[in-house]
Amino acid sequence: MARYLVRRLAQMVPVFLGATFLIFVMVYALGDPVTALFGDRGPDPATAAALRAEFHLDEPVWRQYVLYMGQIFSGDFGTAFNGEPVTDLMGRAFPISFRLMVIALVLEMILGIALGVVTGLRRGRSLDTSVLMLTLGVIAVPTFVLGTTAQYLFGVRLGWVSPAVSPDPTVRELLLPGLILSLVSLAYVTRLTRTSVAENARADYIRTAVAKGLPRRRVTVRHLLRNSLIPVVTYLGADIGTLMAGAIVTERIFNIQGVGFQLYQGVLRQNSATVVGFVVVLVLIFLLANLFVDILYAVLDPRIRYA
Amino acid sequence: MLGTTRRNRGLAGALVLAAAVAGPACGGGYGSGEGPDGVVRASWGDPQHPLEPANTNEVQGGKVLDMIFRGLKRYNPETGRAEDAMAESITTTDQRNFTVTIKDGWTFSDGTPVTARSYVDAWNYGAHVDNAQVASYFFQFIDGYDEVHPSEEGDKPTADTLGGLRLVDDRTFTVRLSEPFSLWPDTLGYAAYAPLPRSFFEDHDAWLAKPVGNGPYRIDSYRKNQSMRLVRHEDYAGADRARNKGVELRVYTDSNTAYTDLQAGNLDLVDDVPAAQLANAQRDLGDRYLNQPAGIIQAVAFPLYHDDWRGEDGAKLRRGLSMAIDREAITNRIYHDTRTPASDYTSPVLGAEGGWQKGLCGEVCEYHPDRASELIEEAGGLPGGRVTLTSNVDTGSHRQWMDAVCNSINNALDDTDACTVEPVPTFADFRNRVGDRKMTGMFRSGWQMDYPLIQNFLQPIYYTDASSNDSGYRSDEFDEAVDRANASADEAGAVRAFQDAQGVLVRDLPAIPLWYQNGTAGHSERVSDVRLNPFSVPVFTDIRVS
Fold it and tell me: Is the pTM of this model over 0.90?
């Protein structure tokens, strides 16, 4: 197990370098960001040159990348165009997005798996059909539409929640955005669990368990669910990163100043320090979440061993 | 046995998750319908640059600077005329050497007095190339600017301070311009000319974290990207004292969310009604919806450096294209009358007295499809049979009007392929292409005024080799009229000469005016006396909170 961990961690290094370099080149390829800082007015060359020097934009791309990586390893993620260190931006944005992600993840785990098990055990019944229809609807309607509708309904019409969340959002404030964010994944988790449960319900070991006279509850939770969760866990693991990075739409609707917002603004202003800095952390989160999922397989299914 | 330990582990995991979710429990009351007593809650956008006076060129940072600083002049929010704020007098005999005397008794909100030195130091800082201030071009009129801010990339400055600035005593300094500029005192209302306290130079980082100025408000707390609380500056010496206790600016990442928050009663003032809501705003808000002229004009420019657009035929083509655009229909249907069809190169906020000439452009800026196709035919047709319209499409709903303009041209010419839109993904990319002179067809040319003077709408955009002359227009006649205006001894004479210059533009048509842009805002029932100044920034000091 230890050897496996070390190998997996070592594999992360090239993935990490490759991913950051690609992002760096992509942001770089968007062109020179300095002119846009002057608005509709043509920039004066001397000030533009001074700004380019400040952000190392006058160096060739490979040197910029080397300089940047050097800075990162000494804990300096560079400066955004508004003069703030990117680490400050991250220090604010990541906790918020993390909270939102956890809420969404908990919602989709609890609701998704519960719905999946119930429908999987009652295939073809009316409950199964209606949940299936619902998930189809959720997947088909864009998050943007669901989000703004829910915001208007609960925020303006009913006045139950505030339409925009505060800079330090509490859990209560994040419940609605979290639900909106999780809806699509929730639908997928439901469908994945349902299929998996439905398949495994016919397996030999379930028949054995039932024949042994085990209580129904124990058969479902300990035997059926545990074996059915592997695909779901894979999906959830990958979803951690997606929920954090992909919350741009939800974050914009509810005015949450998280990772999605900073990335969006960074791309608009072509600020490579912001974009690459955030993506670096996101890449790390993705890699670690995947590692965690792989280890979790062994816990769920003792037949899987790592050497 | 094994089962229990597993379950316990699961429970521990759940607790960790719950703790992470709970997070800090502060920040309550933010979203409540009742705002803090006497404080205006307004929407805000994240400023692009650090909040230094000479480093701010966009409206969100400008909004704050307007509250925390007062310079020598202030633009009257109603008429747009420059009026003395901190200036007691600005005198000249030759339109080139000015003596500035400031009023006594003004203080920064940290208690230190505002002196002539506060101005001289601030201007020297703003002009110097090493400080890389994006608005340093404001100081280009002052003698010695080239020494502290060489125009060529890579050149080193040869002086530390502007040679044209001289401190006389605590309340007086003199300014020598590099050439006569009669309206120069009227430019001094712009935020870049604000005075700065010593703390700006002594502890720059601390100052940036919480800027200190001499305006009607002082900053109580500033959380970058999130919010700023401003409270009334009690020792403010100016005439425009705040009529409310303070302002809370909240950053919204999307103006639609701000609008929704206004409807829910969580916000008092939204100063940019989102395009999607314009159709409903009148109905939702009634007389709490504001739609007033602002100093912004949108035009379509042409690459006059390109052979296709030169000469007599080029001028005919431009005239034809201008007459093929149905401005009335576009401003009405797409913008719900938050734009007005333009008929000159300036803006209604100047007023007739300030040089705005309604209808100057005549039938050229009106929709005459038949005449349009005639003109284009006479000029030998569009270059290559077609023309493109280029702009960035990431902001400002540019895509919609560009499609409408092209449709209008195509309808007039009865050719579905005559005009095509060429969208550029980001503003930065668009500005780079324009700056590198890579345009081949029509491109968007927007102008937001720096100060309400006719000079600002003409000289920076159309004077030979001016900083924003993106189309490469050059006309000796135009330049001569501008020079004459700047040397004029009285304001009326200067305006008349600028109007002569504008006459040259209307004849040559280097760009076609599209529409004057309005500022929009909406406010809650909690506040009253809300209005926008000519820069489409709310006049916060006038707002009353019930």
Answer: no
